Amino acid sequence: MEDLFRIRRVWALEILDSRGNPTVEAWVETEALRRACFKVPSGASTGKFEALELRDGDERFKGRGVRKAVKNVNEIIANKIVGLDSRDQRLIDRTLIELDGTDNKSRLGANAILSVSMAVAKAAAATSDLPLYKYLGGVDSYMLPTPMMNIINGGLHAGNKLAFQEFMIIPTGFRSFSEALRAGVEVYHTLKQLLKEKYGVSAVNVGDEGGFAPPMSRTEEALEILVRAVEQAGYEPDRQVVLGLDCAASTFYKDGKYLVDQNSYTAGELLDYYINLVEKYPIKSIEDPFQEDDFYHHSQITRKLQGKVQIVGDDLFVTNKDRLQQGISLGSCNALLFKLNQAGTLTEALEAASTAFRAGYRVIVSHRSGETEDTTIADLSVALNTGLIKTGAPARSERTSKYNRLLEIEDELSEQARYPSFMLA
Fold first, then answer.
1. Order of strands across the sheet with 7-16?
2. DSSP secondary structure string, 152-165?
3. 341 contacts: CB under 8 Å, gap ≥ 6
4. Residue of 117, 75, 123, 122 whose CA lies nearest to 94
5. Which structural domains are found in the chain, ordered by start?
C-alpha cells in the first residue's frame, strides 16, 4: 500500500487563465496510476508581499509566458520529488521551499511551486479514493461556505471610475448553500435589469470576476443600486442578503492620500468615511480598507467597527503566517483572506489559516481575478470549515465551476451538510 502513494511522475504545461494569460498546470501521478492536476490562478491587484509568480519577460504573450516556470517543474522539481510519498505534504512542500531558496519563491516561481504542491495533495486524495475536501479535512468537513459574490466591479477589475474594487452581496440568512446561491443569482439578474434600465445595455458588460462594470463614479451609487436589487429580488437587506466591500486601498493610495469619488482623504478621514457608509448601508464586511503597510489604521477600523463589520486582511496579510501574526498582535482586522498563490505552497497557506483560527479570526477562501476552471478552492473551503468563500459573480465558467462544485459537495454530504447562516459582524 505504501508504494501505491509514491510519486511516479511529475510534469507541467503552459495553459491559459480566464484573462487569456498563460499560467501553469502541473500533473502528479502516483504508483497507483492515479493522477491529478492543479491550475494556478493569477491576481490583478497583487500585494507587494506576495510570493512571486515567474513570467518569461520575452516577446511571447507580451512577456507573460510561463515557459521558465514550466521548465522548472519538468527539469528541477520533478527530479527532487519523484519517489516521495504523496501523503507527506509537509516534507514535499519543505523540499520545494528549500529547492527554491529565496524568501519570495522568485527562483523557481511561486506558480511552479504551488502547481506541484497542490497537485501532490490532489493525487494523494485520488489515490486514497477520497474527494479532496475529505482527504484534507477528514470526517469533520461538513460546513458549506457563505458565498461573497462580487457583482459590481471597480478599481483594477473594471474600466469605470469606481475606486473600490469589489461590491459584494453576501446571502447569509438561509438554511442551505443551494438556497443562498439561488438568492445570489436572483439578485445578480435583478441587478442586471436595473443597470440596463438606468445606464443602457453597455452597463452590463462584465469585469474580470463576472461582476458588472457600469459607468459609475460614486461609491454610494453602487451601494444604492445593490440594495434596490436585493429588495426587488424579494429579499431583505441586513437580514437575508448583506453587502461587502473589497476596497483594495493600495490601488488608490498615493503620496499619503486616498482618492475616492474624486475626493482626497487622509487615513483618518477615510476611516470616518467608512464609518458613515456602514451607518447608511447594510455593509458587514470590508476588505483592505487601507494600504498594505498600514497596520495601525487597520487596527483602528477593527476596533471602531467591532461587532458591526468584519474587517478582512488581504494585501495586508498575503496569506503569510508572520505578517498575520504581526496583525494579530496589533489588533489589525479580524479575518484573513486565504489565497493559495500568495503563500506558494499548501502547507504555508494552511499554517496561515491555523494561525488565524487560533486568534479567533475568520478565514475566507478566495479565488483570484485571473482564474482557471480548477475547483480546488471549493473543496478547501469545506475542508477547513471556513464558512466563507469569495469566488466571484455567478457568471463565467471559471467562477460558476466553483459554485457547481460546492453544489456537488452539498449533495454528497446530504444531511450532514451545514450552512453557517451567520451574520458577519
1. 7-16, 22-30, 35-39
2. EE-GGGSSSS-SSS
3. 40, 41, 42, 43, 50, 51, 53, 110, 111, 114, 368
4. 117
5. 2-129 (3.30.390.10), 139-416 (3.20.20.120)
Residue 75 Ramachandran class (φ > 0 left, ψ -120 to 50 alpha, else beta): alpha
Alpha-carbon distances of 238 from 227, 309, 353, rounded to whole Å: 9, 12, 28
Phi and psi torsions of 238, nearest 5°: 75, -5
The residue assigned the cell 496579510 is 317
Rg (CA), the chain: 21
Whole-structure pTM over 0.90, yes or no? yes
* Enzyme catalytic residues: 209, 339
8 A C-beta contact, residue 241 and residue 194: no
Question: Per-residue pLDDT for the chain (425 aa), expressed as one digit of tens each?
Answer: 579 999 999 999 999 999 999 999 999 999 999 999 999 998 765 667 889 999 999 999 999 999 999 999 999 999 999 999 999 999 999 999 999 999 999 999 999 999 999 999 999 999 999 999 999 999 999 999 999 999 999 887 677 789 999 999 999 999 999 999 999 999 999 999 999 999 999 899 888 899 999 999 899 999 999 999 999 999 999 999 999 999 999 999 999 999 999 999 999 999 999 999 999 999 999 999 999 999 999 999 999 999 999 999 999 999 999 999 999 999 999 999 999 999 999 999 999 999 999 999 999 999 998 999 999 999 999 999 999 999 999 999 999 999 999 999 999 999 999 999 766 55
What are φ and ψ of residue 150, in 5° steps?
A: -80, 100
- Provide the 3-class DSSP secondary structure of residue 35: strand
Whose CA is closest to 151, among 190, 93, 200, 94? 190
